[in-house]
Write a structure and sequence with these properties.
InterPro entries: Gfo/Idh/MocA-like_OxRdtase_N, Gfo/Idh/MocA_oxidoreduct, NAD(P)-bd_dom_sf, YceM-like_C
Largest sheet: 8 strands, mixed
CATH topology of the largest domain: Dihydrodipicolinate Reductase, domain 2
Structural class: alpha/beta
CATH superfamily of the largest domain: Dihydrodipicolinate Reductase, domain 2
CATH architecture of the largest domain: 2-Layer Sandwich
Number of domains: 2
Protein name: Oxidoreductase
Pfam families: GFO_IDH_MocA, YceM-like_C
GO molecular function: nucleotide binding
C-alpha cells in the first residue's frame, strides 16, 4: 500500500510514524512544506528522498492508496478536500475543522464521492476505555486537565476537549436527550468547562480545567454498585468493595496504550477490504463541540 503522511509535527512524530513505519507492506510517503523538517524526519525513519514531498500535488501524483492528515487544524479543510476529490481514503486528526460548516461540507463531500473519511478519535480504541463498554455505566465522569493553559474557547474545545466529549458519546449507554454546559471565560480565554449529558437512566459529565495545577486524564464509569477508574490511559482500578489495580505492562508501547496503533490498523484494514468508512458519527461529536463553544461564547459576552 502507498500511504501518505501529511504534516510532520509533534503528533505525527510521537504517535503515528512509529506505527506506520513498522507496518509490513506499506510504502510510506511524507509531505510537509518545511524542507528541514522533512529531511530530519525522513532520516530518522529511513524514508528515501523519492518518497519525500514538499507540496501536496507531488504527493497526490504518487497514486496513494490512503492518507493520514496531521497538519495544523486550520489547513484541514483544504487538504482533506484535495484528498477526497482525488479519491484517496483519508484519516484526519481531530477535529475535521474548526468551523462546523467546514466539517459538514467535508463529510458530505466524502459521502457524495464514495470516499472513506475517518477521524482520529483514538481513545475509542484505547484498551482501558474500550473495555469500559463492558462495564455498567449509569454514571460516567471524565476529566482532562492542564497546567496554565487558558485558551480561546473554540481552539480549546475543538483541539482538546473534543476527546472528552467524544469519549462520553462513545460510552453513553443510550441516546442523549439533555445537554448542559457551564464554563468560565475571562478576557476571551476559557479557564474551565463542564458538560453534562443525560439520557434514560444515565448521566455523563465531562470536565476540563486549564488552570488545574496538574496534567491528568481520569475516566470513571459506575453502576450496579461497581466502579472502574482509568487513570492517564495506563492504570485501571476496579472497585467492588476493595479496589484492584491493573497497570500497563512495562513493554506495552504507548501507541498501543493510547489506541493509536489500533485505530491505524482498523483504518488500513478497512481500506484494504474496500470497506467505505463514514465520518457521520464523528460529525455528531463536532456538532456537540459547536454547542459547547457557542454556550461558552455567550457566557463570555455576558
Amino acid at each position: 500500500m502507498k500511504i501518505g503522511c501529511i504534516g510532520l509535527g509533534d503528533i505525527a512524530q510521537k504517535a503515528y510514524l512509529p506505527v506506520l513505519t513498522t507496518l509490513p507492506g506499506v510504502e510510506l510517503h511524507l509531505q510537509t512544506r518545511t524542507p528541514a523538517t522533512l529531511a530530519r524526519v525522513a532520516g530518522v525513519h529511513h524514508v528515501p528522498d523519492s518518497r519525500c514531498h514538499t507540496d501536496l500535488d507531488a504527493l497526490l501524483a504518487q497514486d496513494l492508496d490512503a492518507a493520514f492528515v496531521h497538519a495544523p487544524t486550520a489547513v484541514h479543510p483544504e487538504i482533506v478536500t484535495r484528498l477526497v476529490e482525488a479519491g484517496v481514503p483519508t484519516y484526519v486528526d481531530k477535529p475535521i475543522a474548526y468551523e462546523l460548516a467546514d466539517s459538514e461540507r467535508l463529510v458530505r463531500l466524502a459521502e457524495e464521492r464514495g470516499v472513506s473519511l475517518a477521524v482520529g478519535f483514538n481513545r475509542r480504541f484505547a484498551p482501558g476505555y474500550a473495555q469500559c463498554v463492558e462495564h455498567p455505566r449509569d454514571m460516567i465522569l471524565m476529566q482532562k486537565n492542564r497546567v496554565g493553559l487558558p485558551e480561546d474557547p473554540r481552539t480549546l474545545v475543538l483541539d482538546d476537549f473534543i476527546h472528552v466529549l467524544d469519549t462520553l458519546r462513545f460510552l453513553a449507554p443510550g441516546p442523549i436527550d439533555d445537554v448542559t454546559v457551564r464554563s468560565r471565560v475571562e478576557d476571551g480565554l476559557m479557564h474551565h468547562v463542564v458538560v453534562q449529558l443525560a439520557g434514560d437512566g444515565f448521566v455523563a459529565i465531562g470536565m476540563m480545567n486549564r488552570l488545574s495545577g496538574s496534567t491528568e486524564e481520569i475516566l470513571e464509569v459506575s453502576g450496579q454498585d461497581t466502579k472502574r477508574q482509568v487513570i492517564n490511559l495506563a492504570e485501571i482500578v476496579d472497585h467492588k468493595g476493595q479496589p484492584s489495580v491493573r497497570r500497563r505492562g512495562d513493554w506495552v508501547p504507548v501507541a498501543r496504550q493510547r489506541g493509536i496503533e489500533q485505530v491505524v490498523l482498523s483504518f488500513l484494514d478497512a481500506v484494504r477490504a474496500g470497506k467505505l468508512l463514514s465520518a457521520r458519527d464523528a460529525l455528531a461529536t463536532h456538532e456537540l463541540c459547536e454547542r459547547v463553544v457557542r454556550a461558552a461564547q455567550e457566557r463570555g459576552r455576558g
